[in-house]
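Go through this one:
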Amino acid sequence: MAAKGRTRKRAAPRPRAAAKRKSAGRRKPPPAQLGRTVHDMAAELQHRVNNILATVRAILGQTRDTTSTLEDFVDAFDGRLSALARSQMLLSRGVNGHADLHELLTDELIAHTARIGESVVVSGPEIWLTPRAAEMMAVAFHELAANAVKYGALATPAGRIDVDWRVESKKAGRQLVLRWREAGVQLPQSVARRGFGAELVEEGLPYTFGGAATLQYHPDGLECLMAFPLKPAHFIVAAEAAT
């Protein structure tokens, strides 16, 4: 009961209109729109998984056909799967699901105990690789590095590897030109010329990207030259994408 002579104060009205306006700014997407987003993500994931499985099957078959013992098969297959896994890690944390070419290359070299900045020098403009390009290039770089460990510049303290790339303008369009050059070694005559790595570099990469790739065996080390059309489906110049 209120005291005599006093009046009870009424509570201030709640700002219902303001609350409604404030909550309107945080409105959730309509169920139909949310469904399309989830559907697109699921379709993209399924596409990625199918591509990865196809790549694994191809690596499995080609490794089986180019190895003579179970031990050699396990060692080669494990190395190639590891390279593929490293490419997926880069893609997962890359810009818009792309992998940086410099990082992809240096990760593969470091996995083969290369000393970046000392016996190995890597340079070139910032290039992003789409998932398919990253997977193919990762396995190709693995093959080059594994060959260097067995026969080339990573097998001797005097060995050196220089890798550089650039963008060149041609009549048919622009190209990504990459050069891998080893020096300071003496290649044995028994180095296999047409193994899995050679077929991947000289046939698999040009088939996927267009252009050309060659392996040249100099007396002091291996040289690999690649020239691929600069197509957005495979390679993106970072500086241009940012403008």
Q: What stands out?
A: DSSP finds seven helices and eight strands in the chain. The two ends are 73 Å apart (CA to CA). The first strand starts at residue 99 and ends at 100. The helical segments are 16-24, 31-65, 70-93, 101-111, 131-150, 196-209, 238-241.
